[in-house]
């Protein structure tokens, strides 16, 4: 069965498949055309540093940092290159008493990314200079870790509808070549 996270990302949403535990960013119109029914919604989970999930993430390789009265965890996922820039993906978990955010961050080397309207409004991607940030559900973190273990780059790109891969030019203005030349899991 398929479940939605009601992310509020316009025409897209994170969809959880309980058969294989995958979470993918999917265009909702494609689901409708295929006749896929959503069985229900899943609430976004909060993570605080007192939660058991926080400790489990540390055991899975996340490193803990502290700053600005907030504890957070980070884990590098992989690096990949386009002809003129290198991308680095990592997961960032902020787990404070009053706030909880899990984001997928993509460092874009020295390239300052200007998002087009599609990226800003439809996907809720934020560009912070050379960082692209997208908030993701906790269940997606576990799926990404599975893809990282398998070193399944195509699966990783597919779970973001290829918006950080071959379709990066759909969200970033004047990106250039979208041919991926190198993938590195050993960071």
Ordered list of secondary-structure elements with their pairings:
Blueprint: E1 2-4, E2 12-17, E3 22-27, H1 28-34, E4 38-41, H2 52-59, E5 63-67, E6 70-82, E7 85-95, E8 100-107, H3 117-122, E9 126-128, E10 131-135, H4 138-150, H5 153-158, E11 182-184
Parallel strand pairs: 1-4
Antiparallel strand pairs: 1-2, 2-3, 5-6, 6-7, 6-11, 7-8, 8-10, 9-10
Can you put this structure into words, describing what you see?
The chain has 187 residues and is an alpha+beta fold. The chain has one domain (45-184). Helix content is 21%, strand content 36%. The protein contains five helices and eleven strands; from the N terminus they run βββαβαββββαββααβ. The strands form two sheets. Strands 5, 6, 7, 8, 9, 10 and 11 form a seven-stranded antiparallel sheet that branches. A four-stranded mixed sheet has the order 3-2-1-4. It is globular. The mean pLDDT is 84.
